[in-house]
Request: fold
Amino acid sequence: MPINAIKLTPLVGSELKLEGEALLSGDYRDEIRQLLVQRGVLIVRDLELSDQQQRQFTATLGDLRLGTVSKEGDEGLMKVTLDQKNNPEYADFFPGTMFWHMDGTYDATPPFATVLRPIVIAPEGGQTEFANTYAAYEALSAEQKARVDTLQVVHSMQAAMFHACPEADLEQIQRWCSYPTRTHPLVWEHKSGRKSLALSTSCSHIPGMAPVDSFEFLQDLLRHATQPQFVYRHEWRPNDLLIWDNTGTMHRGRPYAADSGRLMHRFTLNGEEPIRAVA
Ligand code: OGA
Ligand code: MN
Reply:
């Protein structure tokens, strides 16, 4: 039986009506992957999953990203929180998640998808928004498409973090600069043949363009891509499970208090294809 999927907005986001057992079985893998790249973000509500079940479900969809280990030793689990005590290694980076971004643009092959589950929800703010970058590309004029199709853009951790931490000290800046920069095409022609804008707050500049022009161009494109018709805002409820396609959306967290205790548990899938320029 096909999955019962309900559109949350016309262009982005669907809610799936699925029981935990069905999700974990892997039986719906292909259908979920297909819906994910069509709709950008999928929600399943009212599930009571453990970390282990969240990991197991994520792994049904692709190649689980290992490498990060939480303080308690859970491999692959990333605790998304501003609380240093809960995530000493990464808490400093999460203020950067409040600006529109794709994850992992410093890698040749950005992660495919991420599965997020709320553990502590902020009493105010802390929603997560998703913008469909396939739809944003599609909505450009033929002239605009012809132009963006030819451009490349440099991504850097410094560009991504500077908005969130404009008063960073030298040590922080050195840490950001220790990440390699990466040049990607601005338009991603996926293996499927569909095209999306590979935009993110990590976009530093367009090589070969005068700095002011590059800044203005990227700002305009970001404004275009995050218009309300391309965006779904998720209001978190306990026992939600949310999956986003990191290759065809941008996302951002809305501001929340650092002392709110907000905590999300995250598992990520490795990327399956590099950002490839339009042929
Ligand atoms: C992330 C992220 C946003 C949020 O985990 O990559 O950007 O709302 N999270 O926590
Ligand atoms: Mn992110």
Notes: The longest strand covers residues 113-120. The longest helix spans residues 211-225.
